[in-house]
């Protein structure tokens, strides 16, 4: 495997950044993950637009000129012969002697890009079975709209899910409404067939897959309501699913041990998943 590190393509096993990188010391950085499907990078323009916003919110400079990134992502995918899998990009504020305040102007942000193959049959099996989620109290900061590498609450929540035999944890707000998953957005489908997902302005990450699923739903003539929903409403829903670049739309069949409907993946979720790839933007790698 090959990684891109600050202008060089290096063997993945030997790829490294300096111990005083601010990503390592402070999680002072942002990232993006794009799905690679059948040789195409999915929704790359939307992911790069979100990266731009994340960098701006944290006053981190572009590590390379903005226009070069699509080429670098493609090149890392190509060099790793990834046809199905993902490409990961991370920008940190750079290497500097450890001080909380920003380093001197001119410190170069660090850019790392990696790519990894995934077996489509593993995803297919997951879709067939559906996944289980647990709920955990929201304990993250209020800037989760920034796709920061500071993910310790997400790590702990997802570990707790794993130990409970589940695959995702949903953060629940103090008012009892579901926010999002540790690495995904949360959706339900009501008994009337309406898709419900939390407004992006209400303390969640604006998922790229979430945005594209709005386009997919419109194409399929499905109604979406952007509003909060409670755990109780989710347990009583006709369907539930999560969305993210790597899971697309993944059926949820159990929440805190309670089965959703008959405990099998929902048909509308599967239709959304099917239609997703036709509608998403596909950049040849
Ligand atoms: N919420 C969180 C907290 C996430 O980490 C992710 C995955 N990056 C998402 C939502 C889904 O976003 P996307 O569809 O852009 O992958």
TrEMBL record:
GO molecular function: L-isoleucine-2-oxoglutarate transaminase activity; L-leucine-2-oxoglutarate transaminase activity; L-valine-2-oxoglutarate transaminase activity
Catalytic reactions on record: L-isoleucine + 2-oxoglutarate = (S)-3-methyl-2-oxopentanoate + L-glutamate; L-valine + 2-oxoglutarate = 3-methyl-2-oxobutanoate + L-glutamate; L-leucine + 2-oxoglutarate = 4-methyl-2-oxopentanoate + L-glutamate
Role of this protein: Acts on leucine, isoleucine and valine.
One BP term from GO: branched-chain amino acid biosynthetic process
SUPFAM superfamilies per UniProt: D-aminoacid aminotransferase-like PLP-dependent enzymes (SSF56752)
Keyword vocabulary terms for this entry: Amino-acid biosynthesis, Aminotransferase, Branched-chain amino acid biosynthesis, Pyridoxal phosphate, Transferase
Enzyme's top EC category: transferase
EC nos: 2.6.1.42
Name of the molecule in the record: Probable branched-chain-amino-acid aminotransferase
Pathway annotation from the record: Amino-acid biosynthesis; L-isoleucine biosynthesis; L-isoleucine from 2-oxobutanoate: step 4/4; Amino-acid biosynthesis; L-valine biosynthesis; L-valine from pyruvate: step 4/4; Amino-acid biosynthesis; L-leucine biosynthesis; L-leucine from 3-methyl-2-oxobutanoate: step 4/4
Cofactor: pyridoxal 5'-phosphate
Family listed: Belongs to the class-IV pyridoxal-phosphate-dependent aminotransferase family.
GO cellular component labels: cytosol
Transmembrane segments: none
